Amino acid sequence: MSFFGFYALSGAWLFALLAPLVAFYFLKLKRPKQEIPSLVLWRQVLTDQRVNSPFQRFKRNILLFLQIALLALVVLAAMQPFWRGQSARVRRLPILIDCSASMAALDKPNGVSRLDAAKAEVEKLVDGMLPDQELCLISFSRTARKRTSFTNDKRLLREALAAIAVEDVSSDIEDALRMTQALARGESFDEVLLLSDGNFPTQTHFELSFALKYRRLPPAGPNIGITALSARRSEDGNWDVFVNIEGSPQAEGTTAVELIQDDKLVHEETLSLGKGKVERMLFRVSGEKASQVQVRLRPDGFDSLASDNVAFIELPAVRPLWVYCPVSLATYRHALGAVSGIRLFPQAGAEATETNFDLVVTDRPEDLGLQARTWLTVGIIPEDLRRLLTVRKEGGAVVDWQRSAELLQHVELGDLLTLEQVQSNDGVRESDYDNLGYEILVHGRGGPLLLEKRSGGKNAFHLLFHTDRSTLPYRVGFPILVSNLVRLSLFDAGLAEAQAQRTGVLRAPPLAPDRTYVVKGPDGTSQEEKTDAAGNLAGVSAPRVGVYRVLDGGAERAWLGASLLSSNTTLLTSTEQIQFNENLSVTASVAATRSDRSLWKYPALLAFGVLLAEWWYFNRRTRGSLR
Amino acid sequence: MSLGRRSAESANQGKEFVMENEEPAAEKPQLTPLLSNEALSRLERMRIQSRRRFTNRSRGEHLAGRSGASTEFCDYRDYVPGDDVRFVDWNIFARLNRPYLKLYHQEEEVHVVLLVDGSTSMLFERKLDWAKELAAAFGVMALNGTERLSLYSFRRRDAPPHRLAPCRGRASMKGLFAAVEAVEGGGDVPLEVAMESLLKHHTGRGVVVVLSDFLTFGDLGRAMNRLFTAGLEIFGLQLLGPTEIDPEVGGDTRFVDSETAATLDVSAADDLLPLYQEHRIAYERNVAALCQQRSGRFLTISTADTIEWVLFDLLRRKGWAR
């Protein structure tokens, strides 16, 4: 294969212009006539060997040679020569550009980010594009986005390239590959170029239907970052904040770790991290009131990625769990009374006036109007289940139960007897309960005995038999079941532990229903979101690390911190080989992609230089002859 | 051969040399439009100085190489018995005690032939005018030196030359001027042809003053040989115009020969000027060598010079006249 080619070879016919050029040159030499006394001396001059030397002949016709050179260079430029790249010429090339969090990592102090390096390579491809070549740019992080269609408009491509920015989320190439596959239905192409630092899962569940060229970018420098942040309620009413700090294999050094609560520095420590080590740190913060906590790293040396140096977590005020349990359920009230950290309603001898609780345990249908995140109904058949089952006044027993269910952990229900038998109606199958969103936790002889349903942030457990008409309250497992229920409620209410939220999609706390809120991001962007009937926001898009504020007419209603918290990203792991299936894998290439390079600029510049030279020479001769 | 340029002021230097028996020039009518009366009066006192020894039966002012009965000492030779004792140098005898015989020049007459080139090339830059002025000057010198004088000018091949029949003495001055003034140019006769044709009409030994630009494709050597063989000492005066000495050309030009109408295309003529000078000087040297090899003389004059400087300074310095 030759290394040099011409895109517009047909332009060579322009060389035929040489003939009229030479002809006109000599014709144009309408030499002025000058009568002289005698040609004796001039003839001797012209027959002098020195005049007829090749150099002198050249010098006499230098303008002609300059014009020939100019024409040759212009025709050469018109033929659009190009230097062949590594691979055969590709007419259409989709380029997948990774813009996940790890692509913001620098290679050295004041160096370039991986994304900038990828952009530079794409710029070279754009510059070297020949007129019949088209590129399509697709950026991807967790999801893919098509930046341009197939186009050879270099300006458009450059603008789209410049608009690609890093998103502080982990990378997943599957969405990008799917998008590329969808492209293939409309446009034909043979090869796809993937530009990434390799920080994505090695195994990909995707059927590759095109040739994928994986160009792995040069590695970034060492990095230290926060990979996990959580908090657990301590017994003394405070929060224990747990922070995991990891470093990439080359990272080694010290870093200051700051804990900031409500914009006030409350703790600072220095951590020394060895290569490839993980350190877990514990801070205790006050739980008196709800607070917003930031953990920040300040590494002493070079740290290639900044977005994993900060993490956010919202800690609610430490308070007792509000539990409603009617007096009629004395067994439950008794079991609940033994659990610490709860406030039981109604209090003894008083009616409950509150309507919002964390946990409601009731056997009274009129209590179903209360507000609670977690429910346990006892002996109440939900409205949507009444057509599926019947409760008979006959003895029943537990056949099986889900031992892994959180509510039933360490609860033994074997030999449990009930005075009521729940019987599924004829033709009703388990799937019918699934279709209604119920999960059967305990099976009786004829039908389900305990079901769980999660909907709209609520978690409801339905005991279809009354525990007072069973042997359950007498079993050892009964207080354990109640304790499990309290623990579940504590987690559901966010009172037991808190987890920092990762970038991507944020979960907002319940707000006013059917209301529009403005969510302001850390990069100054704003988005409008509307809550549903339950007051839940559908999901706040959070591509950047930082604080997202939910505003209602300017007033802050919620504070959401988004953190990277990705061990894979912080370690800057790089996949060398993408495994598609047991037979197909794509290995990374580290050499820069060499595209066909258009060379027409060089003969065009040379032609301009020859034109200037000709102008100078012609004017010099004209001035000389006037002397 | 360097060509000096003399300003017209030098022509006024001769005013102090007004002849005793001549009335001031301003009062006399101009004898010829070719030369001023003042120049003429100066020329009357000048003589053409020939190098060769001529043997001619007629007696002129030029001295022959043989011992003669003139008063002008020539040389010594040993005394042999039978020599005329009147010519013994007694002073030398007294010193050396050996007799030596004094030899004296014999006065002879010289025929001065003026050949004026009448070809077309002479029409450029007043070369023909110069030739006529110089012809008149040499003619005056010859007539006042009691030499025989004739003039030839060849113009057309198919026509006889314009000539002045041999004449002598101051009385022939008027005829000389008339003949010179009547010389016309624009002819097509090459110089070498004119030189050889001259011999068809001329007899006698002497000096031939060739007034031409000497730019010819023909063989000058053969013509000069014939002149030399015919006993004529060649005085070659090459007349060139300023643009022939220092051409003003540039770029791409088509030169046209004024005589043959032949053309020559030259490109980048300005780049070739140094080479032109080289060839011009070599050509002049070559023609000068041809003359000198035949005991002749050769000078190149620019028509930008003044006639007075040429006549009264250059020719004298070069020994052409005294």
Number of strands of chain A: 37
- Look at the structure and give the mean pLDDT of chain B: 82
What structural class do you assign from the helix and strand content of chain B?
Answer: alpha/beta
Q: What is the CATH class of the largest domain in chain A? A: Alpha Beta
End-to-end separation of chain B in angstroms reads 20 Å
Low-confidence stretches of chain B: 1-20, 55-60, 63-68
> What general form of chain B does the structure show?
globular
> How much β-strand is present in the residues of chain A?
25-35%
Taken together, the total number of domains of chain A comes to 5
- Termini of chain A, distance in Å? 57 Å
Radius of gyration of chain A: 39 Å
Taking the sheet with the most strands of chain B, its summary is: 6 strands, mixed
Number of domains of chain B: 2
Subunit arrangement of the protein: heterodimer
Predict the CATH topology of the largest domain in chain A. Rossmann fold
Query: Under the CATH scheme, which class of the largest domain in chain B?
Result: Alpha Beta
Computed CA radius of gyration of chain B, to the nearest angstrom? 22 Å
What is the CATH topology classification name of the largest domain in chain B? Answer: Rossmann fold
Which range does the strand content of chain B fall in? 15-25%
Description of the molecule:
The complex is a heterodimer of chains A (627) and B (322). By secondary structure, chain A is α+β, with helices and mostly antiparallel strands. Helices cover 22% and strands 33% of the residues of chain A. Chain A folds into 5 domains: 4-82, no CATH class; 92-220 and 573-595, Rossmann fold, CATH 3.40.50; 224-316 and 566-570, Immunoglobulins (Immunoglobulin-like); 321-492, Rossmann fold (3-Layer(aba) Sandwich), CATH 3.40.50; 503-558. The mean pLDDT of chain A is 88. Chain B has 2 domains: 9-53 and 110-317, 3-Layer(aba) Sandwich (Rossmann fold), CATH 3.40.50.410; 62-108, no CATH class. Chain B is 31% helix and 23% strand. In chain B, the strands form 3 sheets. A 6-stranded mixed beta sheet of chain B has the order 6-5-4-7-8-11, with helices on both faces. Chain B is globular, with a radius of gyration of 22 Å. The relative contact order of chain B is 0.16. Chain A binds chain B through residues 29, 31-46, 48, 50-51, 59-61, 621-622, 624-627, and chain B through 120-122, 124, 127, 213, 215-217, 241, 243-244, 247, 249-260, 262-268, 270-272, 275-276, 279-280, 283.
